[in-house]
Amino acid sequence: MHFVNKASYGAAIAALFFLSIARCDCQTTGGGLLSNDGETGSLNALVQYLYNIPQFRKAVYASKDDTDFVTELQRIFFQIQYRGCADTSALADFEEWVFVENPGTADVSELRQVLLGNILSETDIDASIARLFRGRVENTIEASAVNFESSREETFLSIFLRVAGLDGLVASLNDYAEEEVLKGDNQIFVEDEGLVDGIRTSKFAELPPVLQLDFRRFTFNGVGVEKVDASFGYPTILDFSAENKGVLNEEAADTAASQRYLLHSVISHSGSADAGIFRTFALVSDQESGTDGWYRFDNEEVVSVAEIDAVEGLFGDGTESENAYLVTYVRMSDWDEVNAPTGKKDIPNAKRTLFEGEEADPRCMQ
């Protein structure tokens, strides 16, 4: 299991941030205000993003794993939801983060990859991650001249999609599944035939309930990393039974009619490849009113926003303005389950007693 990514770049987490939810009801609207000391943007955005997937939060709560890392993540979610604030400095100090380079900078995509792919996969939360995020891609190589075909599958938690030269998500998905001609230096070797021309394709064999898509806005230009700020659109409803059906293999195409997804969250980036700010936008289900609404989580500020702010407002305009970096869709047939309420009842008794007995940070009282 891995992240399907053709370009990886350095990332890091912050040493400390403080969450205070003075201006939002975190039990109904989700998340909270995060103070930022200048080095905490990616971790802030990631925590808000994951917290606002209730079934992920439930999986963390329900874990009986006694590792310090999982317990600390449970504590953070509990404090966000029931105390109004949390200190996460301990989370950043665990040795599990040795995979993350350059602590002075941060890339939320790489940070999420480490968290989901390397840390939680070693705990009893792994099955829940698989159920929510894990899909399958079928990679096929064909050489028709010698009647050769070979296929293999790989799993993914997130799909990395090209931005440069494309106008939006639909075009990028089709670019991902487009045939790649293998000839010249890229010929394939076939036993008893030697090197021959071939064609390689990658198509989705299974889509997960929660589909994580990473826009490759950071690319290597031969000298260093640069950011692609071009306008790049994405729909609120992603329908794989329509213009995107061609990205599915035969197995998945049989279920295309049920593969309709609703935009759930966006993590944006503003700035350059050298420095920038991450913010999270999430479509949050209000457990009391039964309605959904978009919220923007920006360190010390959590505000209700219009849908246009999380969609068209983050397409980008070719400058170093704010634009979408990571987007997440939830399959419409799974929406209610993924966003079902979760809380204290989902936490093992011993852990719940531990968290309830801990003194609240004085800053939560302010």
Description of the molecule:
The strands form four sheets. Strands 1, 5, 6, 7, 10, 11, 14, 15, 16, 17, 18 and 19 form a twelve-stranded mixed sheet that branches. The chain is globular and about 70 Å long. Helices cover 24% and strands 31% of the residues. With 366 residues, the chain is of the alpha+beta class. It is built from eleven helices and 19 strands. It starts with a strand and ends in a 9-residue tail after the last helix. The chain has helices spanning 41-51, 54-62, 68-82, 89-92, 108-119, 126-133, 169-177, 250-253, 307-310, 335-338, 349-357, and strands spanning 2-4, 18-20, 33-35, 85-87, 135-143, 148-162, 180-182, 188-190, 194-196, 198-206, 210-216, 218-220, 225-227, 237-239, 260-271, 276-285, 292-298, 301-305, 323-331. A hairpin with a 4-residue loop joins β15 (260-271) and β16.
What are the low-pLDDT stretches, counting only 5+ consecutive residues below 50? 1-25
Biggest sheet descriptor: 12 strands, mixed
Quick one: how many beta strands?
19
User: Distance between the terminal alpha carbons, to the nearest Å?
Assistant: 44 Å
Helical fraction equals: 10-25%
Count of individual helical segments: 11
Percent of sequence in beta strands: 25-35%
Mean pLDDT comes to 83
Shape from CA axes? globular
How do the SSEs run, as a string of H and E?
EEEHHHEHHHEEHEEEEEEEEHEEEEHEHH
Radius of gyration: 21 Å
Which structural category fits the helices and strands?
alpha+beta
